[in-house]
TrEMBL record:
The keyword Zinc-finger does not apply. It holds the Pfam family ADK. Gene3D superfamilies: P-loop containing nucleotide triphosphate hydrolases. InterPro entries: Adenylat/UMP-CMP_kin (IPR000850), ADK_active_lid_dom_sf (IPR036193), P-loop_NTPase (IPR027417). Belongs to the adenylate kinase family. It comes from Adineta steineri. This is Adenylate kinase.
Length: 474
């Protein structure tokens, strides 16, 4: 790294190493933990911190009374194998060092917010919570409590907010019952226990009157504002299984990284699938250079380079250029500054599994996204055999999609020699021969298939979504 130049030129290998090992996220977690906990010995603290599993779930389930947050909490606990923390349980197991700070008859409502935050801080530092993660239910109940938790470094990765119309919640609260023995929650209409013994011992919770519900709902609405960046609102007025499925999907999803990544995109597809069109759209919107292999080969020949002289006989005979020559040309292009700093979008390579493997072996050439533009042969034939070129202006026209505006233009249109039906079928079949082996190689890496027999804008939207969204690999 040359420190005499500004801006400092960072080696592309370093950037690839940082992406591959998620160094940005690692530094972010370390710094945020140091600022929250402020340990006396930062080095020892960081060593211990890095030994822990930082990806365990940390979830807060918010919701107005009768929204089903306790039921969802128990279901989520079983699914994520996390520790369920409820304010009522914490109240019955208060550490001795905090007992002298409690009011004479402590309840959920008369304990100060700062003391609650200390109690929860002590609980989440417990070994089981650190190892398995935690799910916090029934707290915070107001904005003051939420801010107190944040002030003590209790920062959830996911906050779920259950919402429903007030009349639905009041109706639910009126029929809510609790088993004092197991703490399980039932409802006299929607969830009646099958055992007569359980039915007989059910009790009605306190403060479930309509007036009390309205007051608690008003206070609850203010809590959500404290967790906007990680908040997901779920409609609680639907079947329980649907609610839980949505919450589990959110709580088990990996956090979106805000680190800067260099896009390295490969677009595969048969002739007529619109690879060049998609690549051009990506390049224009994200300022990413296009690496077109046919164009690179022509540039080598025109520039009369030694590599150009080596590949010219193959192109003259219309045979495949050896992989060793192709790899060298591609590597030289991808090591240029625009590709190492901005990324790249590649078309025309790889064509075989061997080429895909060689691309993956070299870090600077390994793609981060691979797209297959799938299109039937009949659509490819219709697109290519019906297009023509105006030799005067260089404009492209299509018999159906973009017909010429005047008779004079129509008269001088000419078809490209490689756009006849036989040539198109031959190119399509050449791609199809290696399609299965390319798909087998890239599918475990999260390759994305896009139906390319749609309009160009729809295809680009699908590709763009695949670029910006998190990749799900097998």
């Amino acid at each position: 790294m040359d420190q005499t130049l500004y801006p400092v030129n960072i080696s592309p290998e370093f950037l690839l190493y940082a992406e591959r090992n998620t160094l940005f996220e690692l530094f972010q977690k370390c710094i945020s933990s140091l600022l929250v906990d402020r340990p006396n010995d930062p080095i020892t603290y960081l060593i211990d911190f890095l030994k822990k599993d930082a990806d365990v779930p940390r979830v807060i389930i918010l919701g107005p009374p009768a929204s089903g947050r306790h039921t969802i909490g128990k279901l989520l606990q079983k699914k994520l194998n996390a520790v369920l923390i409820e304010a009522a349980d914490l109240l019955h197991n208060i550490p001795s060092k905090f007992k002298d700070k409690l009011p004479p008859k402590p309840t959920i409502h008369n304990i100060p917010s700062t003391l609650w935050a200390q109690l929860f801080e002590e609980r989440v530092k417990d070994f089981e919570c650190v190892r398995r993660g935690w799910i916090l239910v029934d707290f915070p109940n107001n904005r003051e409590q939420a801010l107190a938790l944040q002030g003590h470094g209790i920062a959830p990765r996911y906050v779920v907010c259950l919402e429903a119309p007030d009349n639905v919640l009041i109706e639910r609260a009126a029929g809510k019952r609790i088993d004092p023995k197991t703490k399980d929650i039932y409802h006299i209409t929607f969830h009646v226990p099958s055992s007569r013994e359980i039915q007989d011992r059910l009790i009605t919770p306190e403060d479930n009157s309509e007036k009390a519900m309205h007051l608690r709902l008003k206070e609850y609405r203010r809590v959500k504002d404290c967790y906007k960046p990680v908040l997901r609102t779920i409609n609680a007025d639907q079947p329980l299984n649907d609610i839980f499925t949505q919450i589990y999907s959110y709580a088990s999803k990996k956090e979106r990284s805000i680190a800067l990544h260099t896009p390295r995109i490969v677009i595969l597809g048969p002739t007529g699938s619109g690879r060049k069109t998609v690549a051009t759209q990506i390049s224009r919107k994200y300022d990413v250079p296009i690496v077109s292999i046919p164009t690179l080969l022509k540039q080598q020949i025109v520039s009369k380079t030694p590599l150009g002289a080596s590949i010219k006989p193959y192109l003259d005979r219309q045979t495949l250029v050896p992989d060793s020559l192709l790899t060298q040309i591609i590597k030289d292009r991808l090591n240029q500054k625009d590709c190492t700093t901005k990324g790249w979008v590649m078309i025309g390579f790889p064509r075989t599994r061997e080429q895909a493997e060689s691309l993956a072996r070299t870090p600077v050439m390994a793609p981060t996204r691979v797209f297959f533009l799938d299109i039937p042969l009949d659509i490819a034939l219709e697109r290519l055999t019906n297009r023509a070129l105006d030799p005067v202006t260089g404009d492209r026209f299509h018999t159906h999609e973009r017909p010429p505006s005047t008779h004079n233009i129509k008269q001088r249109l000419a078809q490209h020699p490689t756009d006849d039906e036989e040539s198109v079928q031959k190119r399509y079949q050449t791609y199809s021969v290696y399609y299965d082996e390319l798909q087998d190689f890239y599918s475990p890496q999260g390759a994305i298939h896009v139906a390319a027999d749609q309009d160009a804008y729809t295809v680009f939207e699908a590709v763009e979504a695949g670029i910006v969204n998190q990749l799900h690999k097998e």
